[in-house]
Write a structure and sequence with these properties.
- With about 260 residues, this protein is an alpha+beta fold.
- It has 7 helices and 12 strands.
- It has helices at about 50-70, 70-80, 130-140, 145-150, 185, 190-200, 205-215, and strands spanning about 1-20, 25-35, 35-45, 90-100, 105-110, 115-120, 125, 165-170, 175-180, 220, 225-230, 230-250.
- The strands form 3 sheets. Strands 1-12-9-6-7 form a 5-stranded antiparallel sheet. Strands 2-3-4-5-8 form a 5-stranded antiparallel sheet, covered by helices on one side. It has a two-stranded antiparallel ribbon with strand order 10-11.
- The radius of gyration is 21 Å and the shape is globular.
- The two termini are about 25 Å apart.
Amino acid sequence: MTEKTTAAAEVTVGLAQRPGTELPCADGVHVHRQGGRVCAAVVDGAGHRAETVDFAKHAPPVIALMGMAMGGLVGLTTAGRMADAYDRPPHMSAIVASMEPGRPTSVHWIGDCRAYGWDGKKLTLWSTDQTMGQWLRWNGGVPIEIAETQDNWARLGLAQATEMTCRQLEIPEDIPLVLLVSDGISDQMDMETAEELCRKHVDAPQALADALVIAAQGEEEEESGELYRDDATVVVLSRLTATLPGEPVRPVLAPAS
């Protein structure tokens, strides 16, 4: 009698956040699990008005839970309608991803929160920022130097979320690790550093999330020379495959001749 083994995939999660120079934190995050499926949402508010900070607390659970129940597009559009509950509707970028064993990772977003995928060797940006800078690059006719000055201007946010304005994609199942980040991570860390951290902590999603937030040190402001750090949030979604013991396998005996 021999022991049969089976491969069981599991989604594990790492989550980390730190406030930036200006308090309070206007990023938000929520992770929801149902069975083997995980749905995670990250939002990044523009500015630190009271309305923005409040919206950043309430929008992520709505996006993640509605995303789990009805898909990421419904999650974004539902949360987007909540912006009208404020006297001054906040501007907020958002991204939501759903990962489960045996399926591609579904990603929906609006604004400039990002999704990256790590294939074991290389970190790839899968999402495309909805910024004025990216719009100028796509349309052409404008020098790259000018387009780069507009990268901090998100053209769309949750308040404008519809089936026409939200973007979506699927990251293939063979990409085992997906990062969802606010621009406090992506704007204040180079790809080489992020790749090295993925390589170092590929088997430890929480350690990777913590390391990414720590590495986003900020940048000096041109006018004052002071260090500025944006709010930084990251969710690491990882498929780990473990070999589990199964039912004993009995040898098949050949019939007697």
